[in-house]
Design goal:
Pfam families: Aldedh (PF00171). The structure is a single chain. By secondary structure, the protein is an alpha/beta fold. Helix content is about 40%, strand content about 20%. It has two domains: about 10-245 and about 450-470, Aldehyde Dehydrogenase, Chain A, domain 1; about 250-435, Aldehyde Dehydrogenase, Chain A, domain 2, CATH 3.40.309.10. α2 (about 55-70) crosses α6 and α3 (about 70-85) runs antiparallel to α6 (about 170-185). The two termini are about 40 Å apart.
Length: about 475
């Protein structure tokens, strides 16, 4: 294969603390030579790993789980400093993200097959599964550990090697994970190149060049729908398998018979987890008009109680936004809504001082043409609109190009069932605000992507099906 190798000057790129705007570290800025060598190494490492028994793979994954757990404080501190989330939430992400190693250790030994007699009586049908091959994982900045572990763990369980490209804003967590995994692999006399972390500011060049190489067989991506579409188009020439976990615009539908105490608890979980910087964050609160006044009053009171500050401060419940550009984008959505008639009940103004902060904000009386109702907010802003009938509320909820997550609340079982059935999303939470679970398939429909991470379904993304016709 003849391929031009891209050239770059040897360099690094900085990592900035979004709470203080202070420099944290300089990270190696990988080049074409780095990632093409990584692919060659991944091919070699994957060939030997694919021959390792499922039980041995499970043992390695369990040892990675234990090693990450031992370094919980290191991971949490690193994550808070480079991404901004409160330290308590960072520890929660370590526990959640690490659980994927344990879950897929258990799934590694349950890769099934099928044996059946041909209905025509001409032989036996044997169906088996094999590793898909070298994987490229491109991960986002909002959950720098968990978004990587739920790709690495199933890939290893299936018998694949993997190259991970973390977000430029938050590479340090992934570099630490790479070091921890390498230590475990060495203890088992396994090629360290089985899992490789490539940090680079040349993400587009990296994906383009790697995906042009037929040795790469799988691409898994979490990020924006626009980039996801580009990667899918890029995969066409070599017909690489792809998994795309893309943008969301999650509705949070509150029926008139909902338990408002439960609703408020779940609303804060669904909206304010990770400061709203989550693809499954509640974007639109759709509330029955008969209870909207009480709901909005109580939600505003809760949002006013949020403590904004450096995530390393124990009192902080809302950290900074990841970058100035991201923060300013949130402000633009709020300003657009206000200019069109929306009412700000709390927040809505960028505070003075260091750090990329944006306050917890509640908007009501939103016009239908406000951009914030159709675009992903990715920040601590709650929008409240009303409906007069449940059918109207469901129609409003489904009036979006996205379909990642949706939430519905009712104390009536028939209403709850209607919400579960009619809300159009890959994941629906009924009377729950926290829906992520390593044992459940995470993923969306429509412009929110395809493929699933977690659950028994998650490992299937990394397996090829082989049919063997036996006489």
């Amino acid at each position: 294969m003849s391929q031009k190798i891209l050239e770059y000057p040897m360099s690094t790129f900085p990592v900035i603390n979004p709470a203080t705007e202070q420099h944290l570290a300089d990270v190696h800025d990988a080049t074409s030579q780095d990632w093409m060598q990584a692919l060659s190494d991944a091919v070699t490492a994957g060939q030997s790993w694919s021959q390792v028994t499922p039980r041995q793979r499970a043992t390695v994954l369990n040892d990675i789980f234990a090693a990450v757990a031992e370094r919980e404080d290191d991971f949490a501190t690193t994550m808070t400093k480079e991404m901004g989330k409160p330290l308590r939430e960072a520890r929660g992400e370590v526990a959640y993200g690490n659980e994927y190693f344990r879950w897929f250790a258990e799934e590694a030994v349950r890769i099934d097959g099928r044996l059946a007699q041909s209905p025509a009586g001409v032989g036996t049908i044997l169906v088996t599964h094999e590793p898909v091959g070298p994987v490229l994982a491109i991960t986002p900045w909002n959950f720098p550990l968990a978004m990587a572990t739920r790709k690495i763990a199933p890939a290893l369980a299936a018998g694949c090697s993997i190259i991970v490209k973390p977000a430029q804003e938050t590479p340090l967590t992934m570099v630490l994970l790479g070091e921890v995994i390498a230590e475990v692999l060495r203890k088992h006399n396994i090629d360290e190149k089985l899992v490789q972390v490539i940090t680079t500011s040349h993400a587009s060049d990296m994906s383009k060049e790697l995906m042009a190489d037929p040795r790469l067989r799988k691409v898994t991506f979490t990020g924006s729908t626009g980039v996801g579409r580009h990667l899918v188009r890029q995969s066409a020439d070599n017909l690489q398998r792809t998994s795309m976990e893309l943008g969301g615009n999650a509705p949070f539908v509150v029926a008139e018979d909902a338990d408002l105490d439960l609703v408020l608890t779940c609303a804060l979980q669904a909206k304010m987890r990770n400061g709203g910087e989550a693809c499954i964050a509640a974007n639109r609160f759709l509330v029955a008009s008969s209870i909207e006044e009480e709901f909005t009053k109580r939600l505003t009171e809760h949002m006013e109680g949020v403590v904004m500050g450096d995530g390393m401060d124990d009192a902080t419940t809302l950290g900074p936004i990841i970058t100035k550009k991201q923060r300013d984008g949130i402000a633009e959505l709020v300003d657009d809504a206000v200019s069109k008639g929306a009412q700000v009940l709390t927040g809505g103004t960028i505070p003075e001082g260091k750090g990329f902060f944006y306050p917890a904000t509640v908007l009501t009386k939103l016009p239908k043409d406000a951009r914030i109702l159709s675009e992903e907010i990715f920040g601590p802003v709650a929008t409240v609109t009303t409906f007069d009938s449940l059918d109207e509320g469901i129609a409003m909820a489904n009036d979006t190009e996205f379909g990642l997550a949706a939430y519905g609340f009712s104390e009536n079982i028939h209403t709850a069932q209607k919400l579960a059935k009619e809300l159009k999303a890959g994941m629906v939470g009924i009377n729950r605000g926290a829906i992520s679970d390593p044992a459940a398939p995470f993923g969306g429909i429509k412009q929110s992507g395809f493929g699933r991470e977690g659950g028994s379904e998650g490992i299937e993304e990394y397996l090829d099906i082989k049919y063997i016709a036996l006489q």
